[in-house]
Amino acid sequence: MATVTIGKKACTVNPLKMSQPIGGALAFMGIRDSMPLFHGSQGCTSFGLVLFVRHFKEAIPLQTTAMSEVATVLGGYENVEQAIVNISNKQKARLIGICSTGVTETKGDDVDSYIKLVRQQHPELDDVSLVYVSTPDFKDAFQDGWEKTVAKIVKTLVKDPPEDVVRDPKKLVVLPGCHMTPGDLDELRDIIEAFGFEPLFLPDLAASLDGHIPDDFTPTTLGGISLEEIADLGNASHIIAIGEHMRLAAEALKEKIGVPYRLFDRIIGLLPTDALFAHLMAISGRDVPMKFKRQRSQLVDAMLDGHFHTGGKKIAVGLEPDFLFDLSSFLVDMGCQIEVAISTNSVPILERVPSESVLIGDLEDLESMAPGCDLLITHAHGRQASERLHIPLFRMGLPIFDRLGAGHITAVGYRGARDLIFDIANTFIANAHVATPDTWYPHPTGDSENKAFTTTVAH
């Protein structure tokens, strides 16, 4: 078990973590015709907007209640009301997802009461769904905002099924963790559909932030799971949750519709993927399709080929807790050593990270502890540390704004794990020291014949 230590620095120098409102807003972006709304200052929203645009390279729907100093002191009801009415009238959003920020949480705005007042004063908004999530950015992190938001969506938007509900044996609900990319969801969808299921992802970023060109402009989200599909989840037969932080939403959905769930705390690598396929075989009664057996064989071969380059390598990793546990476990399976593990906030799963210790800290901590490591793994803000330490950086997580295709990075399934092995091994190969004639030097004894020989060869 890893020892989890919380850093005691007076300030964060190079932040690793993203805030709770960022995680909440991203979860709302996986629902069709929705508009995330930050209840806070314009600066809070601008920061999140820029981060998402640079990462996904897409138009991002995100609005603000634009709280001023005076409004913050007096209370933000009028700002919330005006924002909801404007978004409904001008942008035709069917769901407005409200995330609190530090300034309004410090003031103590009762947004749930605000929403009740808006409902009373604006009956024309009866068809607009309003979901409020408390996501103060002065505590917890990105993963927690996603976790709370998905759970609140389940509690608010999923209808209670009737007592005589008829379960659809093909309907399977997937609650993906915040560390899963649109590419991961697409791969997972292909796997689940191959067993005859019709998976519904909540949220579904693969349908909204996968980088497609829409037929028409829309100011809200481009796609995702619909409100009708969320409301009708009550007749589903199966639930799969991915990541320990999705247990809260899985428990909420289980309580709501009365269906047990299966939670996978790992999804990257051979054994976790085998466990997923075994579960799908058990609930579907079908054998694994031949193409996946072939892909599994390819993954095993990739592990054999890749371990020559990954075995014994020392890795420094800085990621959100569940992603840190999942990816570091995969790296250890490939023979790597997790020398440095940095995460954003203390949660129980960090004790299971295959490292001697996990520090709750920032990227300055990662940089100070990483000398001697062979690879850094974190998001794009680790690039300066990589340059200063002359250690290659393998980009994972959010944000990745200095490379294309961040939304399509795929690590799940046999194919995803296979390609991840190749990418990491190729990073080691590209940065390996290779002897060349220029690295040959005269013999240290000063022997004239040896010196003449080496000098001739070198030139």
From TrEMBL:
Keywords: Nitrogen fixation. The keyword rRNA processing does not apply. Residues 19-428 form the Nitrogenase/oxidoreductase component domain. Pathway: Cofactor biosynthesis; Fe-Mo cofactor biosynthesis. InterPro entries: ChlB/BchB/BchZ (IPR050152), Nase/OxRdtase_comp1 (IPR000510), Nase_comp1_CS (IPR000318), Nase_Mo-Fe_CF (IPR005975). It holds the Pfam family Oxidored_nitro. PANTHER family: LIGHT-INDEPENDENT PROTOCHLOROPHYLLIDE REDUCTASE SUBUNIT B. This protein may play a role in the biosynthesis of the prosthetic group of nitrogenase (FeMo cofactor). Belongs to the NifD/NifK/NifE/NifN family. This is Nitrogenase iron-molybdenum cofactor biosynthesis protein NifN.
